[in-house]
Amino acid sequence: xxxxxxxxxxxxxxxxxxxxxxxxxxxxxxxxxxxxxxxxxxxxxxxxxxxxxxxxxxxxxxxxxxxxxxxxxxxxxxxxxxxxxxxxxxxxxxxxxxxxxxxxxxxxxxxxxxxxxxxxxxxxxxxxxxxxxxxxxxxxxxxxxxxxxxxxxxxxxxxxxxxxxxxxxxxxxxxxxxxxxxxxxxxxxxxxxxxxxxxxxxxxxxxxxxxxxxxxxxxxxxxxxx
Amino acid sequence: xxxxxxxxxxxxxxxxxxxxxxxxxxxxxxxxxxxxxxxxxxxxxxxxxxxxxxxxxxxxxxxxxxxxxxxxxxxxxxxxxxxxxxxxxxxxxxxxxxxxxxxxxxxxxxxxxxxxxxxxxxx
Lengths: 226, 123
Known about the structure:
heterodimer, A: alpha/beta, 44% helix, globular, B: mainly alpha
């Protein structure tokens, strides 16, 4: 039986974490929640819901948390790793579809896409579509890869990809770093259409314009100066 | 002597004292001590004899000596800002490495403890 592991980075997500973990356990042998220095009950609730909890002593950002989660998954001998958000915007069955796509064995990296045309388009609010398009354009300009949803937090890594990925950034900009890694390491990739659940809660947790600009500047800085 | 010259000189001397204190406490490398002393000495010279910058201005092709000092200071500030930014990024990354290593060590201890307990639960 392949060891499928779902990694969920979580920071102060006590409202949603238990439900997200419960959903995720149906589609993976193990669920790892990286409690990124939360000050609420996130870690305890995740553990009660059946997740393995890895705790950052201080908040390091979503990129750092995903990095820790993938590392933990590799130590647990994962055959495939899927990352998903803790705010409840991803449907667990979509994580299952990403695993299914990886199981075909012809790709190393699978991205969930809320904008991919096809079976099940999500209802992304208009300003999100705009921000996302800007993110996609920037990703294309910086890394030369066109994807339909560069900012999606639901993605899957094969056995090989999970063991070779190197995330250097700590914050939200790590989202684009996955794409850089994909290109640098010549991972074959595919996109799977997913449907995001937009609630007021998940909207308040997501990126806004100001954060978007900050992320964009950091990415440009790293690409051209470091 | 103008008031601004006195203010600048006093501030530079204060800065030199901070640099020296920091060096004595071991919080600074000899190279940086030297660079900062040269910098603040230059500030004192320029504020006492503003005319010294005029010569530099002529060499660089800038109109006034004071402007030259301004341009060079700005350049220095931007450079230091960039250096600090890069340094913070490095520290950020190192902190993540430490936090991650600790988190994973705790996880392995938890798992080991769990495995040690599990056989006991079996009838």
